[in-house]
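To illustrate the input format used throughout this study, we show a single complete record. The first block contains the structure-token representation of the backbone; no residue identities are included at this stage. The design step must infer an amino acid for every position from geometry alone.
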């Protein structure tokens, strides 16, 4: 992803920006491209819509700088009118509309100190709340991806011979701050289990992985997968700190696994709410590329057979994208996900069992894909916690389906950092990572073969005639 975005940036923008320095470029902060002299709401996003709630985020700028203001959001529908406002002044706004009615269309306006934000793609001015699937809710699953503990520069495609494109840094350790905020939010959402499809660290260092484990403790029970950035022997002292295999992910997150002379793949399993959650290890332990080797697929087959005997549907997650369409339209294309043969073998395998959802990360985008092997079952990529769009997912599993929600993390620092890192890759980043509202908030019915399964489109677009189901 980062390599191709960097190439696009070089072709279109490098000459205008001149030499690249090692610091966050002047004027590239959250209001760097805003020309309004009076306080105005900018970057307004309808971040998520559930059955009873919606979240709007935005920034107020004046003279190219964040400007504290109050706010008001008004909304109306056939179910009644409402308003949310606050005179407490802040430049970074995270606003919850609550107690909405399922399946109702609402129109809304956003204003800061009386100045109304015009509608656009991410701020459409209208939304329809979701209708939950039939049956009772069985378990609520939080998904927290790409936390990158230990990273100090966000948005780099390369650091050699110079850092490019201009990256973003913070006086506070932003991956840690973003993880703290997300965990606090997840606790409030009452998730029954938290899944982490990696990357959990920047370079697989023991200190960073141990910090991740400590900060994740309040979110237990959780199940964590290995990412490309978590692979063994990426730093000089790995062998001494995590002997004998130099695999600090094993030492920190799989301490019960007997170590061997060479690193090994580390799949794992947990059960919650009558469902089986399986974390695969999709990382080539030398290169970090995507792989699901035959021995791990045989392990998976045995676990899925056991789940079938228990009448326990499965959710499988791992780091690298696996669907054909997803891999083709990732950045860079074709080589970013699980290798073709391994991916096909995995998809053929799970089609023989009761797998209801596959979750991937790695691309830092919100995305829905499907495979000819598995039909209507969603294969979902989730956005990152550590940078824009800076949040986490909640999957509410019902007897009759799944309701997915995307939540931007709500802490004060999280709002500041989300708006700052929106400018990564010369502000191209949102086009790739945010996705459309249809990709961030949707309902999937288990028994609905007549609904077409249409995968995501590039650029966060979505055909307006396509039904609102994954």
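Output of the design step:
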């Amino acid at each position: 992803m980062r390599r191709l975005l960097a190439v696009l940036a070089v072709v279109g923008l490098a000459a205008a920006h001149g030499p690249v320095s090692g610091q966050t470029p002047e004027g590239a902060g959250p209001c760097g491209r805003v020309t309004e002299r009076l306080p105005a709401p900018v970057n307004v996003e309808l971040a998520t819509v559930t059955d009873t709630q919606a979240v709007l985020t935005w920034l107020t700028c004046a003279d190219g700088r964040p400007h504290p203001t109050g706010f008001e959001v008004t909304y109306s529908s056939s179910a009644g009118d409402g308003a949310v406002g606050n005179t407490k002044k802040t430049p970074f706004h995270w606003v919850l509309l609550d107690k909405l009615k399922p399946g109702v269309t609402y129109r809304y306006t956003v204003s800061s100190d009386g100045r109304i934000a015009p509608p656009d793609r991410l701020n459409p001015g209208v939304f329809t709340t979701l209708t939950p699937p039939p049956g009772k809710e069985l378990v609520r699953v939080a998904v927290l991806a790409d936390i990158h503990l230990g990273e100090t520069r966000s948005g780099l495609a390369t650091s050699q011979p110079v850092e490019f494109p201009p990256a973003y840094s913070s006086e506070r350790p932003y991956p840690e701050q973003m993880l703290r905020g997300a965990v606090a939010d997840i606790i409030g959402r009452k998730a029954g289990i938290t899944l982490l499809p990696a990357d959990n660290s920047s370079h697989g260092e023991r200190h960073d992985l141990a910090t991740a484990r400590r900060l994740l403790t309040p979110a237990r029970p959780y199940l964590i997968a290995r990412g490309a950035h978590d692979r063994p022997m990426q730093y000089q002292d790995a062998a001494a700190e995590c002997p004998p295999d130099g695999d600090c992910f094993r030492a920190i997150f799989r301490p019960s696994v007997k170590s061997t002379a060479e690193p090994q793949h580390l799949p794992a399993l947990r059960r919650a709410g009558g469902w089986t959650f399986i974390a695969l290890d999709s990382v080539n332990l030398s290169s970090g590329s995507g792989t699901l080797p035959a021995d791990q697929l045989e392990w998976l087959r045995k676990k899925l057979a056991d789940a079938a005997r228990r009448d326990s549907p499965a959710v499988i997650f791992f780091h690298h994208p696996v669907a054909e369409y997803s891999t083709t339209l990732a950045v860079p294309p074709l080589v970013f996900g699980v290798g073709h043969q391994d991916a096909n073998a995995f998809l053929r395998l799970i089609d023989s069992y009761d797998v209801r959802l596959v979750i991937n990360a790695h691309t830092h985008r919100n995305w829905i894909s499907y495979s000819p092997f598995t039909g209507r079952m969603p294969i979902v990529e989730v956005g990152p916690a550590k940078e824009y769009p800076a949040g986490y997912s909640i999957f509410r599993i019902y007897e009759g389906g799944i309701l997915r929600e995307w939540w931007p993390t709500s802490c004060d620092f999280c709002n500041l950092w989300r708006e700052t890192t929106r400018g990564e890759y010369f502000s191209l980043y949102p086009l790739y990572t945010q996705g459309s509202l249809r990709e961030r908030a949707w309902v999937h019915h288990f028994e609905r073969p007549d609904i077409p399964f249409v995968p995501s489109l590039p650029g966060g677009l979505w055909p307006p005639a396509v039904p609102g189901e994954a």
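Structural context for interpreting the output: The chain has two domains: 40-128, 137-460. Residues 137-460 form a domain with the Purple Acid Phosphatase; chain A, domain 2 fold (CATH 3.60.21.10).
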